[in-house]
Specification:
about 475 residues, mainly alpha, three-stranded mixed β-sheet, 3 strands, binds zinc ion
């Protein structure tokens, strides 16, 4: 049974972005973009931008460490999408993700891919500071700053610039890997300038402040975070400053833009505090440090952190009493999910299942719960129920999924496989790959599914139809580039 792990293929497919250029042609030309200042970007092909975004994103995924925690990502996306819905780019599909990195940075790539470094999140004192950075990046997207750069670059193709952007971001973490991307030959010549211009930066601040205000988030957080960056040691903040030139002047201009009126903004959400507490333990190289009361804050967030640190250091048995005590007075989902995590890690699968069943009723469609529940069902040898649950997620709560479809299809494949439904498992994997943009691999999975015995005539028909649709997508992409 051939299950292809995306990781294994990542080296082959993703180490260099040039692959895409080889598969799909020579690259995309943005030469026909309207000139700067033209508000309409009608001629900008969304199909091309989508592929460019996927290319950019997959190159980062192949070369950088991501924070793959579903709860943290769900929080980041909820905050990011709330902001984006108050921007001129509302209605676009945004993708927010987190890189596990000790340096401070945030960036906007093609097709509204917005990355945040874990260190930036951890250094933010409150939600409005994090939101300030996100709003600034969303403004870069809404104002098409990157697309305009591509347009201005004349002869160079957009794919080259997307490669370069990825190489710069990767190179900051791992110079060798960054160099390798550049050496693919496409981008080597033109490493020069991919920074946004000073005008872009001022504009992103101005637009970002508007986004924050309309979202009901205090825009002062943005200025506070910039001031913090300027005051920080250059080594820590350098990456951000390099990609978004920041000056005292820019900060004071942003400050002046913020209304002097005292507006009572709602308090920052507790979710920010939970996500940050979780992230600190998750990315820590010494999680054991947080198992001691003296090293965590007083109060429930500190205790939550301590419990997570116990789980991370294989002492889930010690996490359980901490969390049981906590949840008596603090009815937060973060704490309940951590308790389920601790039960699972401590091999108390029955208790984990009972808790997660309740959570799934209370929070239908919330992906971190669905996936935890699915895994627990599989641990408890209930693959059929897991299949049902995931299908429900796909049918009833599809609108909540956004870019997370691939995660659900991956889990669905595992559930089908555990249930002995090989053809369905292969089909789900094919669907996962198609969602992630690995079209050739997806076709392969559909072929494998078609080779299985006992496919019903209607299954065969469906598999062939979808396979042909993906093939047509490949053809269209080749033609468009
Ligand atoms: Zn910027």
């Amino acid at each position: 049974m051939a299950f292809f792990s995306p990781r294994k293929f990542s080296r082959f497919i993703l180490t260099s972005l040039i692959t895409i250029a080889i598969i799909f042609g020579t690259g995309i030309s943005y030469a026909n973009l309207p000139a700067l200042g033209d508000p309409s970007f009608a001629s900008y092909s969304s199909q091309q931008e989508k592929q460019l975004g996927l290319t950019f994103y997959r190159s980062l995924r192949a070369n950088l460490k991501f924070v793959n925690d579903l709860q943290i990502n769900a929080y980041l996306n909820a905050l990011g999408n709330r902001l984006a819905s108050h921007s001129d780019a509302a209605g676009n599909q945004f993708h927010f993700f987190m890189i596990n990195s000790p340096t401070i940075n945030a960036f906007a790539g093609p097709d509204a891919y917005i990355g945040v470094h874990s260190r930036l999140f951890i250094d933010a004192d409150n939600e409005s500071q994090l939101a300030g950075v996100l709003a600034h990046e969303i403004a870069h997207v809404a104002q098409h700053h990157l697309a305009r750069q591509f347009a201005r670059s004349g002869k160079s193709t957009a794919i080259t610039l997307a490669t370069m952007l990825a190489a710069i971001l990767v190179g900051a973490q791992d110079p060798q890997a960054g160099q390798a991307i550049l050496l693919t030959g496409l981008a080597g010549q033109q490493q020069s300038s991919l920074n946004f211009t000073r005008e872009n930066e001022y504009e992103a601040d101005r637009i970002g402040i508007g986004i924050l205000t309309r979202s009901g988030i205090n825009p002062r957080g943005m200025v506070q975070f910039f001031e913090k960056l300027l005051a920080t040691s250059p080594a820590n903040g350098m990456e951000y400053l390099r990609t978004h030139p920041l000056s005292a002047n820019r900060v004071s201009e942003a400050k002046n833009r913020i209304s002097k009126k005292t507006i009572n903004y709602p308090r920052d959400s507790l979710d920010f505090e939970f996500a940050k507490a979780r992230l600190i333990v998750l990315v820590s190289k010494q999680p054991k440090y947080y198992t001691h009361d003296i090293n965590v804050e007083k109060g429930f967030l500190g205790q939550y952190q301590k419990a997570l640190a116990f789980i991370r250091t294989n002492q889930a048995n010690k996490a359980i009493p901490v969390l049981l005590l906590l949840q008596k007075n603090h009815k937060y989902l973060w704490i309940k999910l951590a308790l389920a995590e601790a039960y699972t890690a401590n091999q108390q699968d029955g208790k984990a299942l009972a808790l997660l069943r309740k959570l799934a009723d209370l929070y239908p469609g919330y992906l971190p719960v669905t996936i935890a529940y699915t895994k627990s069902l599989l641990n408890n040898k209930k693959p059929e129920r897991a299949v049902l649950l995931l299908k429900q997620q796909l049918q009833q709560n599809a609108h909540l999924l956004g870019q997370d479809y691939a995660i659900v299809y991956h889990a669905l494949a595992q559930a089908y496989f555990a249930n002995g439904q090989t053809s369905a498992a292969l089909e789900a994997t094919g669907n996962q790959y198609a969602r992630e943009g690995y079209l050739e691999l997806a076709i392969q999975q559909y072929n494998n599914a078609l080779l299985q015995k006992n496919n019903s005539p209607s299954t065969i028909k469906r598999l062939q139809t979808i396979k042909n649709e993906i093939k047509q997508r490949v053809t269209r992409l080749k033609e468009s580039m």
